[in-house]
Write a structure and sequence with these properties.
about 350 residues; alpha/beta; D-Maltodextrin-Binding Protein, domain 2; 6-stranded mixed β-sheet; 5-stranded mixed β-sheet; globular
């Protein structure tokens, strides 16, 4: 509801101004969307839901040309393509752009568990934090939907992980930045690479495994090369958005803008439920395929979470070194929202 509500008043005036028109425009607006995910990845289902909802709610005035699986460029290239106007809407993972979306990476921090919690927290933070919104505006894009995955766990190929000390010495694929700090606290070595390269890296034993959600293990077929996985840890949540070139967005009629925001709000709820349900259901699926899943018992979580105490100070310090004086206030706002939403 965040951006939809903000533009509601403008939308009302737009409706009033057009009531006297003898006819409405039949123009169709076709948007080009690109991301890096393979078509069997859960995010593909999420963006497909968004496109279908936007088409339906616009009464056919919105159409989409969708380019998945890095067809137009790698994940780190898509933002530039969008900024240049070569693509209208792209997937943006803030942790891959720490210099541009550093403050948005606060939602990686392990203060929640599920995608439903993380997605609500991220949207509340966007609504209440001018600093968070400014990062998107300064990059020339408008987020249409914002979400997080559930907090990550660890999957490994040879070594079973059932206690914190089992992490020591493991080489683990991470998404970089604060994810690196998290695994280092358990004595593991972070290796930054894209998920598209991870399958081969595990297969060839370049890395011992990866920090990820179970749904990502399915989307990138890592269950084929991982023998073990944990469930119930907090190794970082992954924030992401689909964002639109701001100039292109501002050229759209108000009613079409509102459709995009409303479809985005509904997609966030759909996506969070999909992510959490997939994580839970994949436990059984992977076990049937021979993977051993270690579900962290409630009485062991204090022991597991202990190494993460004070991890926010590393996040704050890393951003302050880059001149982000708003890091601590943004974290305090994030923490307050987490206390209201997360279990």
């Amino acid at each position: 509801m965040k951006r939809f509500c903000m533009s509601l008043i403008v939308g009302i005036f737009f409706v009033i101004a057009t009531l006297g028109s003898a006819h409405t425009s039949d123009k169709v607006y076709t948007l080009k969307i690109a991301d890096s995910f393979p078509v069997k990845h859960p995010v593909n289902k999420i963006i497909t839901f968004f496109m279908e909802e936007a088409k339906k709610q616009s009464d056919g005035k919105l159409e989409f040309n969708y380019y998945p699986a890095q067809q137009l460029g790698k994940q780190t290239d898509l933002l530039k393509l969008c900024q240049k106007g070569l693509v209208d809407v792209v997937y943006v993972g803030p942790s891959f752009f720490p210099g541009q979306f550093g403050l948005n990476t606060v939602t990686v921090l392990p203060f929640y568990s599920s995608a439903a919690e993380g997605t609500k927290i991220y949207n509340e933070l966007y609504k209440n934090s001018a600093e968070i919104r400014k990062e998107w505006e300064s990059n020339g894009v408008t987020p249409l939907l914002m979400m997080t995955a559930s907090q990550y766990n660890v999957g490994t190929n040879d070594k079973k992980v059932t206690q914190p000390s089992d992490m020591k010495g493991l080489r683990l694929k991470t998404a970089g930045e604060i994810f690196d700090s998290i695994v280092k606290r358990y004595g593991a070595e972070p290796i930054s690479m894209s998920f598209t390269d991870t399958y081969e890296a595990i297969q060839r034993k370049i890395v011992d495994g990866a920090i990820q959600a179970l749904a990502s293990a399915k989307g990138y077929r890592l269950y084929e090369v991982e023998k073990y996985h944990t469930y119930g840890l907090r190794f970082g949540g992954y924030p992401a958005a689909y964002a639109m070139n701001m100039k292109a967005f501002n050229k759209l009629p108000e009613d079409i803008q509102n459709v995009l925001f409303k479809a985005g709000d509904e997609t966030e709820e759909f996506g969070a439920k999909l992510w959490d349900n997939m994580d839970a259901s994949l436990i059984k699926v992977f076990q049937e395929k021979g993977m051993e899943i270690y579900q962290v018992p409630p009485d062991k979580k204090t022991e597991w979470f202990a190494p993460l105490s004070g991890i926010e100070e590393e996040w704050i310090a890393s951003l302050e070194k880059r001149g982000q004086v708003a890091a601590r206030p943004v974290f305090e706002q994030f923490k307050k929202i987490c206390e209201e939403i997360a279990e």
